Amino acid sequence: xxxxxxxxxxxxxxxxxxxxxxxxxxxxxxxxxxxxxxxxxxxxxxxxxxxxxxxxxxxxxxxxxxxxxxxxxxxxxxxxxxxxxxxxxxxxxxxxxxxxxxxxxxxxxxxxxxxxxxxxxxxxxxxxxxxxxxxxxxxxxxxxxxxxxxxxxxxxxxxxxxxxxxxxxxxxxxxxxxxxxxxxxxxxxxxxxxxxxxxxxxxxxxxxxxxxxxxxxxxxxxxxxxxxxxxxxxxxxxxxxxxxxxxxxxxxxxxxxxxxxxxxxxxxxxxxxxxxxxxxxxxxxxxxxxxxxxxxxxxxxxxxxxxxxxxxxxxxxxxxxxxxxxxxxxxxxxxxxxxxxxxxxxxxxxx
Length: 351
What we know:
Strand content: 15-25%
Strand order of the largest sheet: 5-4-3-10-9-8-7-6
Helix content: 25-40%
Order of helices and strands: EEEHEHHHEHEHEHEHEHEHEEHEE
Number of strands: 14
Number of helices: 11
Distance between the termini: 63 Å
Shape: elongated
CATH class of the largest domain: Alpha Beta
CATH architecture of the largest domain: Alpha-Beta Barrel
């Protein structure tokens, strides 16, 4: 795996998961609410907040054709232009949101959806870029993003392995300062049973880059499981209250839930540790309380050792229990007292 950094924060195997609070359209058209979301992300312990930088006219066009209208799901019947007009974050808010994030000790970056958004985000000194799932096939856009010399995080969504490889290549050819992939199920919301988290390890093995999860499933269990399976980045939508509505509210976490996600993901990472099969380190001292062979009844010198006077018990200072068949039938070389750990010097020839 090739790790990289976002504003000095290492991203990759062995480092705590980098947790991104996605604001998306949960501002509900109010700058004050968007700023409050940044504050909530900081209070919850996120590493970064992420915006989406587009207008309805840069991401689609206003055309009344069937393919421009959503069929089924959370946004059934809505036109793309209508939905994106509601969900977009006004560009004139971006500077205030970036500034609030810096004040709160958070990184702030965005998903650009066309070259004008990339140019605009460069004026704000964005420390990284995110490519949304449906833009992974726009290799000219990805190459342009890579050319800014910043880290690039790419969601894989509905992409094939070949399309993922092309997106990675475009970012690298552009000059990206590190690339990560996010496993993503592009359903809103995504059902837990559809999450296919084993894909995280598969992507890491196939491409040798840090891999995380862009999570649209309910709750935080899937994100925690992803960290246990090696996810280096977790991206999750944040809202002040689902009851307030909005285009993304149904699959977003409220602040207390997001704080629990952050805490549990980092706890899961702490629990991973390193693979070891020895007794060194934590808990090794408790080997004293494993079973071993002990004298459980007084034995006179020359008497035969039997199951009545030798047993496998705790603690573990005597001979290993595997030697019991060899020990039984031997004669004691000296008087043995109840409670002594058995050793080879106590054993004479068999009777």
